[in-house]
Write a structure and sequence with these properties.
The protein has about 550 residues and is of the alpha+beta class. Helices cover about 35% and strands about 20% of the residues. The chain has helices at about 5-25, 35-40, 65-80, 100-110, 140-155, 225-240, 250-260, 260-275, 285-290, 305-310, 315-325, 350-365, 390-400, 430-435, 440-445, 510-525, 530-540, 540-550, and strands spanning about 45, 50-55, 60-65, 80-85, 90-95, 125-130, 170, 185-190, 195-205, 215-220, 325, 335-340, 350, 370, 380-385, 410-415, 450-455, 470-475, 480-485, 500, 505. α1 (about 5-25) runs antiparallel to α2 (about 35-40) and α14 (about 430-435) crosses α16. The longest helix is centred in the N-terminal third of the chain and has 22 residues, at about 5-25. The model has no long low-confidence stretch (mean pLDDT about 95). The chain binds protoporphyrin IX containing FE and iron/sulfur cluster (SF4). Protoporphyrin IX containing FE binds next to loops.
Length: about 550
């Protein structure tokens, strides 16, 4: 966990006081909704279909049990008893009353949580691999660098009014769990031949109306230069990014229009002005941040303890262990993913009671720490392998041990028409229906890794472009229709999926997904060939035929 200092705490507390005053003035009528809007957006407050929506940041997805309990408290006291984890390591509350917002923020501030820069045209929550610090395959903990960037970009005067929102993501492993290629700036922590750590920098990725995969702008930027280098990118964007057309304002459009070579040359020039200046990080500064990440006092434990051997006879436990337990850098420990995708449930939702119980389990089994991933699931990052059977029983009782992580029912979905004022169509009920269709674990396992992503409109909050199967809600004659894409992916080989044909009505979406899956099972070369690889090998045509032959 990262230990915040008084500077962080003072900043957070002052912002709460400022917002309390702004809300007071809105409630008294002194401010109109239009005047209030930019102020509330600075604190993560949107106005949605039914109520204000409140988005809270979880930097690099790391939470202490005390912080998690406070989120449960906010859900219970000010909302309807649940929260919604999103794809950018945030949590959203959909039913909060304006008058309660300052109190909710004040309660969260007690544990160092805030909602600053979770909306607006600024640098948003810096996200990172949710397994940072524990993944066996990482170069080093990417959260150290996410924290350096977070501190630098928080309330940065030059970058508080960018042409559009701006998102960073960082990974430190070859296997990208942070979707860095669909972010404005994606950073891949690597070690060069001389043993120095630094970053491959990608720029101009993003989804929404015009999806782009990020392009590599520089193969290696030393760690000490990372702030000055990203500052140079932001300066170029701030200066040349389009402010005349909201649809063309993101950095991906600038990169696309200039071309990556020209854009890189501009950045290089801007970098000359700031490189080797005050933004250069010295080892002491990096060490200071690194030293604030406190790691648990791991014990030397066996990788195959008796408890685990004894539980291996239980088929349900084994199914969960194979699906939801991942290796840890310490052999006696494991990373456990908690599925927030129960059969028939809205993806990413957790009730206040569940959240509290997960905090208790984190205290008991994971040194009080929890992680939030971009797939709308949670993880306990430091579980002793001997505790896995006991933990599983507790998680199962809570309804967060569905063994479907990375399988067809581990669906990412935006709130869609159930909450969102921009939606064309519903997302959540489609996800619920699909989880019912694919509830059978054996079948889902047979299908293997398959990500279904759903967005209720072109803004792509559900990352539909990079879903192995992507579902996008569109409106036709006042009715909900859905475009289906296949072959997208959000990992190190990220690509945007291909459309398979005309949009289909709401009632047919689940059938279409079933048809696609059946086609895949018939067409794959061998069981190990993943859905995305089959699509890559044979293209969309065979799937198209299967889906549209009878429609
Ligand atoms: C109901 C409240 C929400 C509203 C009004 C909203 C609004 C938007 C808008 C307008 C965009 C397009 C931005 C652009 O292209 O410049 C967007 C993008 C996005 N939103 Fe949301 N969103 C909401 C909820 C969510 C939720 C629940 C998630 C996660 C499940 C999410 C994650 C994202 C992501 C990942 C993008 C794509 C960013 C990109 O790469 O361009 N949002 N959102
Ligand atoms: S994709 Fe569209 S419908 Fe879904 S949350 Fe985003 S803006 Fe709303």
């Amino acid at each position: 966990m990262y230990a915040y200092d008084e500077i962080d705490q003072t900043l957070v507390d002052e912002r709460v006081a400022e917002f309390r005053d702004q809300v007071q003035r809105r409630l008294s009528g002194e401010l109109t909704e239009d005047e209030f809007k930019p102020l509330r957006l600075m604190n993560g407050v949107y106005l949605q279909l039914h109520a204000y929506m409140f988005r809270v940041a979880i930097p690099y997805g790391t939470l202490s049990s005390a912080q998690l309990r406070k989120l449960a408290h906010v859900a219970r006291k000010y909302d309807r008893g649940y929260g919604h984890f999103t794809t950018r390591q945030n949590i959203q509350f959909n039913w909060i009353a304006l008058k309660d917002l300052p109190d909710a923020l004040a309660d969260l501030a007690e544990v160092g949580i805030h909602a600053m820069q979770t909306s607006g045209n600024c640098t948003r929550n810096v996200t990172a691999d949710q397994w940072g610090g524990v993944a066996p395959d990482e170069v080093e903990d990417p959260r150290v660098w996410a924290e350096i960037l977070r501190q630098h970009t928080a309330l940065h005067p030059e970058f508080s009014f960018l042409p559009r929102k701006f998102k960073f993501a960082i990974t430190a492993s070859d296997h990208d769990r942070a979707a860095i290629k669909v972010h404005d700036i994606g950073l891949r922590l690597i070690r060069n031949e001389q043993g120095e750590t630094g970053f491959e920098v990608l720029v101009g990725g993003g989804l929404g109306r015009s999806p782009f995969i990020g392009k590599s702008i520089k193969p290696f930027v030393r760690g000490r230069d990372i702030l000055s280098y990203v500052e140079a990118i932001l300066r170029v964007y701030n200066q040349y990014g389009r402010r005349d057309n909201i649809y063309k304002a993101r950095i991906k459009i600038l990169v696309h229009e200039l071309g990556i070579e020209k854009f890189a040359a501009e950045v290089e020039q801007a970098w000359q002005e700031v490189a080797e200046g005050p933004l250069t990080l010295d080892d002491e500064m990096i060490e200071d941040i690194r030293s604030r990440f406190v790691y648990p006092a791991y014990e030397k434990l066996p990788a195959m303890p008796d408890e685990l051997r004894a539980a291996a006879g239980d088929a349900r436990f084994e199914a969960w262990r194979r699906n939801s337990v991942a290796p840890h850098r310490e052999p006696g420990y494991a990373i456990v993913t908690l599925s927030l995708k129960p059969v028939g449930g809205p993806p990413g939702d957790a009730t206040a009671d569940q959240i509290d119980a997960i905090a208790d389990l984190a205290d008991k089994y994971s040194f009080g720490e929890i992680r939030v991933g971009h797939e709308q699931n949670l993880a306990l990052p430091h579980v002793a392998r001997r505790d896995l059977p006991a933990l599983w029983a507790a998680l199962d009782a809570l309804g967060v041990a569905t063994p479907n992580v990375n399988l067809v029912s581990d669906i990412i979905a935006c709130p869609g028409l159930d909450y969102c004022s921009l939606a064309n169509a519903r997302s959540i009920p489609i996800a619920q229906e699909l989880t019912r269709r694919f509830a059978n674990h054996e079948t889902a396992n047979l299908i293997g890794r398959l990500h279904v992503n759903i967005s209720g409109c072109i803004n792509a909050c559900g990352h539909h472009h990079v879903g192995h199967i992507g579902i996008l809600g569109v409106e036709k004659n006042d009715q909900e229709f859905y475009q289906i894409t296949i072959g997208g992916r959000a990992d190190e080989d990220a690509r945007v999926g291909d459309l398979i044909g005309p949009a289909v009505p709401y009632a047919e979406v689940a059938d279409v997904v079933e048809d696609i899956v059946e086609a895949y099972l018939a067409l794959r070369e061998k069981p190990e060939e993943l859905f995305v690889d089959t699509v890559k090998r044979i293209g969309v045509e065979p799937f198209k035929e299967r889906v549209y032959a009878t429609r």
